[in-house]
Amino acid sequence: MEGGTHHPHDGGTGGGDVWEALLPAPAVALLAVGYLLLARRARAHRPVPGWTRWRTVSFLGGCALLAVALLPPVASFAHGDFRGHMVQHLLIGMYAPLALVLGAPVTLLLRTLPAARARRLTALLHSRPVRLVARPVPALLLSTGTLAVLYFTPLFNATMGQPVLHWGVHAHFLLSGCLFAWVIAGPDPAPSRPGVPARLVVLGVAVAAHATVSQLMYGGFLIDVHAPVPEVRGGAEIMYYGGDIAELLLAAALVTTWRPVRRRRPAATGPVPVSAAGTAAG
To answer: How far apart are the first and last CA of the chain?
Structure first.
């Protein structure tokens, strides 16, 4: 942590705001429109059992959160202030992924694709690479574990001078955040998802990891961020409290989407005792 400044990518010319609006806005709009078209197609072909409008609202809410994070004024604030960066990081990496995942986009795809393509998508979901990363621990390492790589190494400072690297970090946190939310509490089927107790333990580890990174950041230990001390401490507080709220929402989603498996009673075998049969007959 140093007493430098947090510089925007465009060198302060103001042109960065134009590109911030031109690049992400069409992508987010296309994502939302694509989902709406798939939902309309699913309803037109046949009633979708168990599908509620809340899933559509959730996915569109995730798109809205992405738009807020990637467009001015939040994006401009993020380029000029480390606290703005942390707000942007939470929106992209935690809040938007949860809302998008709760929209069950994979289930929607499977119900609208032709049978051959749906089978290929199912095969992809059950492929070895997907089964490897679609587990709580790898998902935790890819999402929460990379926080240390970003803030405890020169990587974060490098992203502020390299727009391509900066957008790559955004893409990583969005995808890894969606992966973690999907594995922990997603309504879409996951090929390697363990039971609820195991997922709660992993979620607890994520809470502890976020708290540890934010506390080290606040104290100035191991952090390699070129920004004024008040900004870094403010960013650490945003990470601490904002991360807790996001993880509580994820825990609530896990509890509300959990359906306990009912065990069937074993059927009675063997001859019925004479006394029991006589009692029943009487």
So the answer is: 85
Q: The tokens 């403010």 sit on which residue?
A: 234
pTM of the model: 0.84
Which DSSP symbol is given to 94? I
CA 31/CA 174 separation, integer angstroms = 14
For the ranges 11-20, 69-78, 88-97, which has the lowest average pLDDT?
11-20
What whole-number distance in Å separates Cα of residue 185 and Cα of residue 257?
Answer: 7
State residue 86's pLDDT score. 97
Q: What is the DSSP letter of 268?
A: P
Distance CA 180, CA 143 (A): 7
Name 2's bridge partners. Answer: 226
| Per-residue confidence (pLDDT) for residue 48, from 0 to 100 | 58
The answer on pLDDT for 141 being more than 60 is yes
Backbone angles phi, psi at 72, to 5 degrees: -60, 150
Asked whether residue 2 carries a pLDDT value surpassing 70, the answer given is no
Tell me the C-alpha distance between 242 and 95, whole Å: 9
What is the total residue count of the chain? 282
Contact of 141 with 56, CB cutoff 8 Å: no
Question: What's the gap between Cα 263 and its chain centre?
Answer: 32
- Backbone dihedral region for residue 127 (phi beyond 0: left; psi -120 to 50: alpha; all else: beta): beta
Cβ–Cβ < 8 Å for 159, 229: no
Name the burial class of residue 104, with classes exposed (0-12), middle (13-18) and buried (19+) by CB atoms within 10 angstroms of its CB: buried
98-115 pLDDT per residue, tens: 999 999 999 988 888 888
Long-range contacts of 161-165 (CB under 8 A, 24+ apart): 161/7, 161/9, 163/9
